Amino acid sequence: MAKVKRSDKLIGLKCETCKRRNYYISKNKKTVERKIAYKKFCAWCRKHTVHKEAKITAK
After folding, report:
1. What mean pLDDT is reported for the chain?
2. Domains present along the chain, CATH in parentheses
3. What whole-number distance in Å separates Cα of residue 38 and Cα of residue 58?
4. Helix H segments across 1-59?
């Protein structure tokens, strides 16, 4: 059975061109203090773009 990620450790990755949140990852906030940025595929832009860390807003 798959592990469930805790929502307090989840971080959304936002595309820099279209500003949409495409990926959710977890990071260890004690060891990684900088903002995370990955080059990932954006389904709306249909190309690889830089995705930077963004806050998750609770509903």
Report:
1. 86
2. 10-54 (2.20.28.120)
3. 23
4. none
Per-residue pLDDT tens digits for 3-56? 766 666 788 999 999 999 999 988 888 888 899 999 999 999 999 999 999 987
Q: Measured between alpha carbons, how far is 45 from 49 in angstroms, rounded to an integer?
A: 8
Question: Could you give the 3-state DSSP secondary structure of residue 11?
Answer: strand
> Which SS3 state, helix, strand or coil, does residue 21 take?
strand
- Sheet strand arrangement including 10-15: 21-26, 10-15, 47-54, 37-42
Q: In sequence order, what are the beta bridge partners of 52?
A: 14, 37
| CA–CA distance, 26 with 9 (Å, rounded to integer) | 5
